[in-house]
């Protein structure tokens, strides 16, 4: 397919714009030169909308206004929006003299309208397609079918690429399976694998029909039994192949899920195990509480010291020295301890005096003695309180060594200070743990581990299932081969067998060719895409593996993953280990290699492909893209063009400049006098400017040159 | 045109070299059948057709050719 021309009416900033594309085989490059905000991306959206429909608009067209933002109600409340694209399709047709190319031109018109109310709702767009022949214009019925065939949606990003996000095949945000699916779908579609697969399916059905006929010609004999079994084998094989595909897909899906979960666990563990941290936090909190209690007790002990006798004793020590001397004296006098009363009471009870005389009533001088002793008891009792205090003082004074309180005070203070330090340390530890816990997102690592176990179980189950099915298929294949030989032998013996045998031979031969072609494309052509992508990529980024470049090679794996390798074949992550220019180059290299290997004549329309690049890489990317494309349409800013002028001199067949009139007077030298805000076209190329497109920076450069 | 007929057919022709030439002209007949099948499939993608019937008929025609060349005695 080749783009010939495009026309837009009221498509956002493209109010009325006509473009032609270069269809020259040598000068195959079309350049749309436009500064930022001059309609490049709108043009890309416009082309995609025209060719792929509403779903190709950003966000599938949801809340995506199409009419010009400054549309005046005076011009009508209903805004008609139209995109027209003319293109040429080349098909191969069989003719008496063999295969020959047939070129057909089409005009596609997609239209819709929007009411300029706040919601700007619009009906789904309508597409009309016309074949343009020498004899006139022929409308094509069901144009969507032809367009889907010529421009499958899965190839939209291959043919129409936004350079700023030309990463859909390698982008980090997409899951591995999504990226793989995009690559696989693009490859399968461009290399014709889908058509071959469908053809194999239909010829197999035809073969099954023939086998049915074989059964019918010998309704009760061995041939019938064998043909019936072959039919069952065919049915089982189809079923098992489907189940095997499913098992493989499920295996891959669970494998990917398990890998993702493993990564999540690793990431979470790297940040810290939140559960473990929470437990540590609880433990620290308990320790804090214990320390607070101990500290409170130490404080009490501390304050109790100031109420103790020891403090009084130590404070009064100089005065007490005299008192102690007196107490010692009293003891020596036998007045301490105070034991008189009990001794005297004992004597009275025993009725014998200390001197040995009898105190028994009625004996001589008993009354006098008893009365004397009782008086002594009474006297002692009156001095008892004083006596007791003195006794206590004496004994306590003996116990209290000098300076004891100070020693106690130091011990209590040291203990309290030690506890306070421990408490402060534990408090800091608690705060740090709290901050760590807060910093970690809520990841249930235990839950993730259980999920991982579940995924692995599922993965292993599907792997086992796949192996079982494969074994069954091998058995069925062997049985089919044996039965086919027998059946063909029996058919030869039948009267009508020769014809059925011929039908079986034909279908088996056709299936064989189709299957071998399918396998060849899958293996050989995929390898060609991979090798060419590698060559283009390395050329674009100027990496020479022989000269010790970091990026050594890139490949499309058998599993349809785009992989990049560094020194020692160490894998590099394309979306993380490559810089912006290299990522862009890798995506473009894949797109160009795929288009080239498929030998499909299709345009590569790329918006700002050289952004983030400069110098050698910029020029190499441009030169390689031109060489590997059959038709290349690039939307370039002035900065992207800078330094690449000589390449454009050689390769560009059409160069058009788009200008935004709103850039006057800040960026444009002259007032374009445009009534409405819209992209204005002029035919200035990369080396020229006109009154319309002359930009301030350019004018300054010219002025400098003239000076 | 995402599918390059020319490319696919060139690969098919390459693979047809491995087909047993069961009778004179048989290999060409198979090439013809497969080319037609690819064309039917392409057409079927654009506009739903009875592709199965077309393929069955094409295979039948090739089988008739083969059977005739092998010996017309036991043909219906």
Could you characterize the architecture of this molecule?
With 707 residues, chain A is of the alpha/beta class. Chain A has helices at residues 40-52, 143-150, 156-159, 176-190, 193-216, 222-271, 274-305, 309-315, 317-332, 340-350, 366-382, 384-399, 404-439, 445-493, 497-541, 574-577, 580-598, 615-628, 638-641, 645-651, 696-706; strands at 2-11, 14-20, 29-34, 78-95, 98-115, 126-133, 136-139, 160-162, 553-556, 562-565, 571-572, 603-607, 631-636, 652-659, 680-682. Among the domains of chain A are: 193-275 and 443-522, Helix Hairpins, CATH 1.10.287; 287-436, no CATH class. Chain A contains 21 helices and 15 strands. In chain A, helix 5 packs antiparallel against helix 15, helix 10 runs antiparallel to helix 11 (366-382) and helix 15 (497-541) packs antiparallel against helix 17. In chain A, 29% of the residues are buried. The longest helix of chain B is centred in the middle third of the chain and has 21 residues, at 26-46. Chain B contains three helices and no strands. Chain B has helices spanning 5-16, 26-46, 51-70. Chain B has one domain (5-70). The radius of gyration of chain B is 14 Å and the shape is flat. Chain B is mostly helical. Chains A and B meet through strand 4, helix 2, helix 5 and helix 15 of A and helix 1, helix 2 and helix 3 of B.
- Percent of residues in β-strands of chain B: under 5%
Task: Please count the beta strands of chain B (DSSP E, at least 2 residues each).
Answer: 0
Q: What is the number of helical segments of chain A per DSSP (H or I, 4+ residues)?
A: 21
Secondary-structure-derived class of chain B: mainly alpha
Low-confidence stretches of chain A: none
Q: Based on Cα principal axes, name the global outline of chain A.
A: elongated
Q: Count up the domains of chain B.
A: 1
Q: Quote the average pLDDT of chain A.
A: 85
Helix content of chain A: 55-70%
What is the distance, rounded to the nearest whole angstrom, between the alpha carbons of the first and last residues of chain A?
A: 49 Å
Report the top-level CATH class of the domain at 193-275 and 443-522 in chain A: Mainly Alpha
Average pLDDT over all residues of chain B: 83
Calculate Rg of chain A over CA atoms.
50 Å
Largest sheet of chain A: 6 strands, antiparallel
Which residue ranges of chain B are poorly predicted, with pLDDT under 50 across at least 5 consecutive positions?
A: none
Summed up, the helix count of chain B is: 3
DSSP strand tally of chain A: 15
Shape descriptor of chain B reads flat
CATH architecture of the domain at 193-275 and 443-522 in chain A: Orthogonal Bundle
Strand arrangement within the widest β-sheet of chain A reads 2-1-4-5-6-7
What is the terminal separation of chain B in angstroms? 44 Å
